[in-house]
Amino acid sequence: MKKLQIFLFASLFSTSVFAQDNFFGITYNTAVPMGATADFIDSYSWGALGLEWKKMQTDNISIGVNLAWQVFSQKISHGTIANIDGSNLSISGSQLRYLNYFPMTVTSTYHFNPEGKIIPFAGLGTGAYRVLQRFDISGYAVDANTWNFGFYPEVGLLIPTGGSADFFVNSKYNYIFPSKGGDTHTYLNINVGFSYFY
User: Fold this and answer.
1) Cα–Cα distance for residue pair 194/159, rounded to 1 Å
2) Alpha carbon distance 46, 41 (integer Å)
3) How far apart (Å, rounded) are the C-alpha atoms in residues 36 and 131?
4) Nearest to 151 by CA among 185, 183, 179, 180
5) Across all residues in the chain, what is the average pLDDT?
6) In 61-84, which positions are buried (b, 16+ CB within 10 angstroms) versus exposed (e)?
7) Where are the domains of the chain?
8) C-alpha to C-alpha distances, 113 to 16, 33, 172, nearest whole angstrom
9) How far is residue 99 CA from its own chain's centroid?
10) Which of 80, 107, 166, 185 is least surrounded, with the fewest CB atoms within 10 Å of its CB?
11) Which helix (H) or strand (E) holds 78?
12) CATH 2.40.160.20 given to domain 24-197
């Protein structure tokens, strides 16, 4: 009977340790446009979010998936677009410009000093990006919606709180390859969030 109790205790302990190997995080994402992205919209993005799930493979290494949304928008008081639909027509007026990015990536992360009071980490994400681009001038709109391949290196800090939820900050440099003759898209995320191990 005593052996059975020891076995059940060991099994329960093993299960609880294994359960802590899963990481769920949610972030508030901001971003700086760069390169051709900044040529189209040069204003800072204060909006969107990210969802992340990771599975710890060792004390230091995790793999997972990341879903996010980043939106850029800008109003330009006056501008002109020429050669509309291949004609000699031009339109002048205020412009509204939008970019929406939806990265769907697989990730690999290395956590330095996982038992520390502050845990630095670095990683890489790669996968598909849905890119929705819109240009509107005086009611005339041009949309360019594509699926692109991209990746990002990531660095961050995880700050354990001693409770069930931890605080973390990270930065990701998103590099999105061109699709259908479009531009290369690049932007730098600066994110804050909370994570939960279970």
Assistant:
1) 9
2) 13
3) 14
4) 185
5) 86
6) ebebebebebbbebeeeeeebeee
7) 24-197
8) 22, 32, 21
9) 14
10) 80
11) strand 61-81
12) yes
Q: Count how many residues are written for the chain.
A: 198
- What is the three-class DSSP state of 85? helix
Two tokens at 173? 């440099």
The amino acid that residue 107 corresponds to is T
pLDDT tens for residues 124-166?
999 999 999 998 887 778 888 999 999 999 999 999 988 778 9
**166, two tokens:** 């931890």
pLDDT band at 16 (very low <50, low <70, confident <90, very high): very low
